[in-house]
Amino acid sequence: MVLPLSQIDLGETAKVVWIASQKAMADRLADLGFIPDEEISCVLKGRKGGMRAYLVRNAVIGLREENINEIFVQTGPSSCSASLDSEK
Hints:
Shape: globular
CATH topology: SH3 type barrels
Low-confidence stretches: 79-88
Strand order of the largest sheet: 1-6-2-3-4-5
Strand content: 35-45%
Number of domains: 1
Order of helices and strands: EEHEEEHEH
Radius of gyration: 12 Å
CATH superfamily: Ferrous iron transport protein A (FeoA)
Helix content: 25-40%
Number of strands: 6
Mean pLDDT: 87
Number of helices: 3
Structural class: alpha+beta
CATH architecture: Roll
């Protein structure tokens, strides 16, 4: 299922599908590791409307909610288990 990054729960892992930001922000997010097929995990959720932190490429990145809503991810077994299967 594809949904905004803001919808994943603390501790949940997902894969980036696409970024719906303007070019400058999309480029900045890509520089931080938010690119298609990249696996990310939610590691910290602040209060509603606040900052959240995600583990991306072994780095913790904090984002504002407005940016989190522009990142679309795929969750569920098919999103992360495929990468594990390909490593075997």
